[in-house]
């Protein structure tokens, strides 16, 4: 049986948007909001809110105007999945267990350990690996 973590739509879209920006990352190529939305089949209204969270956290920058858009502030290999999670879902890794009751402390300890392991995996997973393309080039007309 394969296990999978339940990821919010907001976090999924953030990862997909960041992967798109990483594919364009040369330090100067700006990607427009509508391009990201179209390539990832997401609502541009929802996406702009997510991109604002990523901008506020310093992972991306934006330029306004006719030729405006978004670009990464750093290299894709230096940005981790943990960084993205902390930008858009900072409560995902919060400790919500209680140490009350006879078993509370031991149950809390197990969940704390699992959370630490999960956070470690997120830190090791780099944006560059999410931006790798396993399909051929896509052409938009």
From TrEMBL:
Coiled coil: none annotated. The keyword Transport does not apply. The keyword DNA-binding applies. It holds the Pfam family Rrf2. InterPro entries: TR_Rrf2-type_CS (IPR030489), Tscrpt_reg_Rrf2 (IPR000944), WH-like_DNA-bd_sf (IPR036388), WH_DNA-bd_sf (IPR036390). Gene3D superfamilies: Winged helix-like DNA-binding domain superfamily/Winged helix DNA-binding domain. It comes from the Bacteria. SUPFAM superfamilies: Winged helix' DNA-binding domain. Keywords: DNA-binding. This is RrF2 family transcriptional regulator. PANTHER family: HTH-TYPE TRANSCRIPTIONAL REGULATOR ISCR, WINGED HELIX-TURN-HELIX TRANSCRIPTIONAL REGULATOR, RRF2 FAMILY.
